[in-house]
What we know:
Elements: H1 7-25, E1 37-42, E2 45-48, H2 49-65, E3 70-73, H3 74-79, E4 93-100, H4 102-106, E5 113-120, E6 123-131, E7 136-141, E8 145-149, E9 155-157, E10 170-173, H5 182-189, E11 195-197, H6 202-210, E12 216-219, H7 224-236, E13 240-242, E14 258-261, H8 264-275
Parallel strand pairs: 3-4, 10-11, 10-12
Antiparallel strand pairs: 1-2, 4-5, 5-6, 6-7, 7-8, 8-9, 12-14, 13-14
Helix pairs in contact: 1-2, 6-7
Amino acid sequence: MLRSFSREEIRRIAAILAEAAATEIMPRFRNLAADAVRNKTSALDLVTDADESAERFIGDRLSRIYPNAVMVGEEACSRNPALLNVWIDAELAFLIDPIDGTRNYVAGLPLFGVMVAAVSRGEVMAGIIYDPVCRDAAVALRGEGAWLENEHGAQTPLQVAAPVPAEQMVGLIAAQQLDEPLRAAVNANALGLASSTILNCSAHEYRMLAGGHAHVLLYGRLMPWDHAAGWLLHHEAGGYSAHFDGTPYKPTHRGGGLLYAPDAGSWKAAHRLLMGENSPA
């Protein structure tokens, strides 16, 4: 049986993210010492003291409320990759990305977010993407929709953009995550969209998409904490998504890419435009 969540529970979890942002993330923003930033796998894959302390804060607070839940944090998994598999069959697990957009954070750009997804037996039940700068949360609850909630509790429903022809679509295209020759093809084909950019921050890319400010979003690299919350946000805002071969996404999947669009017809049109002859589908 899947573990469901109430809106009150989600509000309490969002409050934890807000507190983590206020105490661990924002005091260090534009105030990081040189030794507070380190490389993980490369010079483009960074971790800071703020990432690690915020992840500990969130995991500790969630464990107090849900003592039997499995906590899966990005930074903990970076240190111990075996943790990537411990949550798959759990009745309840939380996937935690303490600072999504760490490179932006280190550069002093106010474009980063905190993401948490609640997963039960491999199914995403709830997702929260918190913006520490604007102090609001984009929230999705399985079967109950998606909304933006400000720091005063006011809620605004989220709805994906209306379908348009592919050449009129606004795209968020993370083609750098793809292997060749698909990367070159997607980069070239994306010029056929009305606009194409990337924010280097999945948190804000998902918020932009679910809020109807972009039509298409493409990712090649799939880690559960990067996409589970955003996938549910887009789904509950009325959107359609699938791997490049058309199969449904699950948070346990780490390959196959992801393509998002307003509906199934738009997905097919975007897929044809972006993939061209190099499509693996």
